[in-house]
Amino acid sequence: MHVKTFKGSDMQAALAxxxxxxxxxxxxxGTKTVRGAAGKGCExxxxxxxxxxxxxSANAPVMPARDASSIMPSMEPGSSDWAYEWRQIKDQLMxxxxxxxxxxxxxxxxxxxxxxxxxxxxxxxxxLNVYLQLKADPDRPIxxxxxxxxxxxxFESKKWRQKFHVFAGPHGVGKTLSLIRLALREKHxxxxxxxxxxxxxxxxxxxxxxxxxxxxxxxxxxxxxxxxEEMQELLKEAPKFDMIFIxxxxxxxxxxxxxxxxxxxxxxxSDMAAHLVLAPYFAASQxxxxxxxxxxxxxxxxxxxxxxxxxxxxxLLNMARxxxxxxxxxxxxxxxxxxxxxxxxxxxxxxxxxxxxxxxSAEQAA
Length: 366
Ligand SMILES: Nc1nc2c(ncn2[C@@H]2O[C@H](COP(=O)(O)OP(=O)(O)OP(=O)(O)O)[C@@H](O)[C@H]2O)c(=O)[nH]1
Ligand SMILES: [Mg+2]
Hints:
By secondary structure, this protein is α/β, with parallel strands linked by helices. The chain has helices at 11-22, 80-97, 108-119, 124-136, 142-149, 175-189, 207-218, 228-237, 257-263, 284-294, 314-323, 345-354, 362-365, and strands at residues 2-8, 27-36, 39-48, 164-168, 195-199, 221-224, 243-247, 272-278, 299-304, 327-331, 340-342.
């Protein structure tokens, strides 16, 4: 950890120096008022993880390009434990920083927005990131700031050009249903597309039967590939298909997605994107554990399900911050029709600030 002290004539000037030198990733460890020959001033002690220094700018949304792993230092071989620990330390430091957030320094509407996000159970690190960006420019609207925290990259084939799409996540979050609905959307948009849906659950889950059923009804190919051998067969067949949607089982015990994919012979590949399917009602510690187990170079986006059952949405921002991944789809109902939408910033902010589900007006949401 690189720690440094910055001085300024007041808090704003000192924070501007922190930001200019250490960037948005800097953590404020402490502030104090000091008196010197030039009169009263402010001193801030700030820290930065050197591996993040000079990394992604707060304004640059992370797009799921081939090199997305390059902005995820935690994914360097052998470093994920250290990165996870570092995130936990940062979270603890953030709790100490909270009293230092001087809301009086924000414009009234910015203050309201931050208070609102806090009520939505947005975590301290997201709040501090938003606070510092708003404080640097009192005229800055909140939405572009939030877009930098949680970028969206809607799931549609013209954007997501990979052939293989792997759906992973905890048990019962809605992986199979999300996969079916997105595959059917693609088939609807491009009737001639050759789409294959794959059950990779080693024949254990009922999801396999559901997948086969919808594949048969909708003109999608269906394959089973729960072992490395079956996956090899599928890879040989891949040239026959335009898109291949792979349904993974929930991971057991402490298994990680990286290990599971390696076991199936699915190494990092520019033609593959894994999507982490999540529901918004886990505890913060569970999200941290999920991030630790599922983050790997193949993971490119977050899909949020069961939004219709949630009462707060801060988790969407918290996980975007924790994983540095864009949101690709929003699912908001248990049925097959009109219950999933490619994510967009507009939909995300209406959800967070108005509790309006995609396709719902603010009045309907109220
Ligand atoms: N209310 C609501 N229910 C959903 C949503 N998405 C999925 N479900 C329901 O959640 C249940 C589990 O969905 P699945 O798609 O089978 O979940 P899964 O993650 O594949 O489950 P496993 O394969 O058993 O780990 C089903 O009853 C779905 O109808 C959603 O957005 N809203
Ligand atoms: Mg399933």
